[in-house]
Design a protein that fits this description.
The complex is a heterodimer of chains A (about 350) and B (about 80). With about 350 residues, chain A is an all-alpha fold. Chain A is about 80% helix and about 0% strand. Chain B has one domain: 3-Layer(aba) Sandwich (Glutaredoxin), CATH 3.40.30. Chains A and B meet through helix 3, helix 5 and helix 10 of A and helix 1 and helix 2 of B.
């Protein structure tokens, strides 16, 4: 690569600025570990309420810092991963491989639910099998960076890995199951007839400053959308931690109750857009004795099953396929919940 | 110039329209701004992540709302 001296010094400055920001980020994370305790001691705050407030402030700052840092880092790495490129990856592969690829790409592709319809049309009209497209649409909200960051912080990395593995498996199996049927008859005809122009990738490699700009925009968009729910979720979680007795939750939603998994899945459906807020609440319920699989089913249902998503998809899917799609995801979530309850 | 804002009407599409109107006003160019909300039409242009921006029949941006400055820099040479 040949860069003019001016460009090179600009990108050196940018690297320096990024390093400084990273150092400041680490310093803030470390400070957050100590400052609130010290502050509580200094003002002599004690008791359940002070403890809950301290927990709330500490956890909110920590999770928001983690989200900003990691969403930004991931945003820089995936600047080039647009849906147009994902489609090129998926076209003309054997079914099993393309299902696995669709689930993995769904997990790492930035995705807003208002894009799901153009994306569906773009994939299907270009010849990507409908089952593969649906696997992508399942994995995309189920496994995403906000959920992963919050799960890892609150539940630890083993359970996070199990969640990601279960989510990807669910997407692949549901996509595979659906692809056994001939789905074309249940897709609105205009999708299959849509003339699809191609935005050709021009082979342009994004420069560092373009990556930083894209990552900044993405961080602003994602964190700007979820921060309120994060705060609400942590606040409710703090209340549960502080005042709900342990045996109440354990008695109703302990590991021996398969019915609790069903209730948790159904309870997750109306909570769709607040997934970032649901995870801290789920963690508090888990700490109070709710079984691991039941908690997993609850979280998966909040992100994967939503009524607005169904309304959107109705534009392209006829009712039998819409029902099958959500039915398959629901069965998958129940299976994940029951399996986790049996294993953990 | 002919500008089309592609998007079903979500928050980002509204934001893109606002930023575009601002940029056009600041650049002082004459532009026809039209909103495209039909999914078939959006897909036909090859756009899979909304919002999208089309200038004189060419897709110049998809999938995010640019800053006002970035959009001015993008539109200035096309005017």
């Amino acid at each position: 690569m040949t860069a003019t001296p001016g460009l090179r010094s600009r990108s050196t400055r940018l690297v320096g600025a990024l390093a400084l920001l990273a150092a400041a980020w680490v310093a803030l994370l470390v400070a957050n570990e100590h400052v609130w305790r010290a502050l509580a001691l200094a003002v002599g705050a004690e008791g359940a309420l002070a403890g809950a407030v301290e927990f709330f402030v500490y956890d909110s700052v920590k999770i928001l810092l983690l989200l900003v840092g990691l969403v930004f880092a991931i945003g820089m790495l995936r600047t080039t991963l647009r849906p147009e490129r994902v489609r090129a990856f998926l076209e003309g592969r054997p079914l099993a491989l393309s299902l696995v690829l669709a689930a993995l790409l769904g997990a790492v592709t930035p995705f807003c639910s208002c894009s799901s319809i153009p994306l569906f049309i773009g994939f299907v009209a270009a010849g990507v099998p409908i089952g593969v497209t649906l696997a992508f649409l399942i994995a995309s909200p189920l496994v995403n960076e906000v959920a992963v960051v919050m799960l890892a912080d609150l539940f630890g990395w083993q359970l996070t890995a199990a969640y990601v593995g279960a989510g990807l498996t669910l997407a692949v199996l549901a996509g595979w199951g659906l692809s056994r049927l001939s789905l074309e008859r249940w897709v609105e005809p205009f999708v299959l007839e849509a003339p699809v122009a191609r935005l050709t990738a021009d082979g342009h490699r994004p420069s560092l400053s373009e990556r930083v700009e894209a990552a900044r925009a993405e961080t602003r968009e994602i964190v700007g959308r979820v921060w309120r729910w994060v705060l609400v979720g942590i606040a409710v979680g703090a209340v549960i931690h502080g005042w709900v007795p342990t045996d109440v939750v354990a008695a109703y939603a302990g590991p021996d109750d398969p019915f609790a998994v069903v209730v948790a899945t159904l309870a997750g459906v109306p909570l769709y857009s607040n997934a970032a807020g649901v995870i801290p609440i789920a963690e508090a319920l888990w700490a109070k004795g709710m079984a691991t699989g039941t908690v997993m089913a609850f979280m998966m249902a909040t992100v994967a099953l939503s009524i607005p998503e169904a309304v959107l998809l109705r534009r392209v899917l006829r009712p039998p396929l819409l029902g099958l799609f959500f039915g398959a995801v629901t069965v998958g979530i129940l299976a994940v919940g029951l399996t986790f309850n049996a294993v953990f | 110039m002919q500008i089309k804002i592609l998007g079903p009407g979500c928050r980002n599409c509204v934001a893109l329209e606002r930023v575009t109107r601002e940029a056009v006003a600041e650049l002082g160019v004459a532009a026809d701004i039209e909103k495209v909300t039909d999914y078939g039409e959006i897909a036909a242009l090859g756009v899979m992540s909304t919002p999208g921006l089309v200038v004189d029949g060419r897709v110049v941006l998809t999938g995010h709302v640019p800053t006002a400055r970035a959009l001015r820099e993008l539109l200035a040479p096309l005017a």
